[in-house]
UniProtKB/TrEMBL annotation:
It comes from Phytohabitans kaempferiae. This is Uncharacterized protein.
Amino acid sequence: MGFWGTIVVACSPVPLAHRTELLGFGYQHRRVQDLGGGWQVLVTQGWQDPPDLALASEPLAAGTAAPVLAAYVCDGDCAALFTRLPEGRTDSWHLATHQVDCGNEHRPRPRARAAAEVVSELDIWARAAGVAPDAARLRAVVGYDKAASAHRSADELVYDLLPALGFTAPGEPHPVAFDIDAEPYARFVGNFGLAMIARGRAVSRQTRPDEVEQPWEAAAIRLELDLWAGLHRDDIDVATLQARAERLWADYRRSRPAESG
């Protein structure tokens, strides 16, 4: 299975993972890397529906007073990209530019574009960001045709776009406070974590009012949010988070016989 999620490029004096304006794109901030000059690239996930890139980018551009580029990637197969300048100029397109009927949901839905038109808009965006774009490299990314060349996933193409725009190569990922994919945290995150199960049960109760909410459900959702909020901080009490996770897992295990009965 390929990558599902959003890649955001923005300029900020603090790590992008700490900015509340990023929550419109997602809350599961997986990775942050520096691009030089205060520019960063962030990979995030978290909301079931694809984010509205136009809506999510507006507060980020206003809060940073700098251009924003965002890409929503579907299974590594395609990506919808959206750019915004602080004064309000926006643009959107699809990778590949000619393939808009991809079968995936994008918000806003990009229209078919000529590659040359997209390259021109990206040139404007890059110069507003203070970097020097390489037109030939932009054309190679925007005009990519996987049927005619070695296959590149859509998320790889978004990263290919960064040096084409004029950014330096992404630096090492910012350090994280703990491994969120390791136990006991992994039990609460992801598509099969307790937080997702709890959200699914809440939806089920809308049509099955006889289904009783279990005490661990709200606690699992709160813990998952706190785990992601603390992942990129250096002042987080990791021992307390770990104890909460272990205690809640034990509560969940004790509740299971009651649920099945």
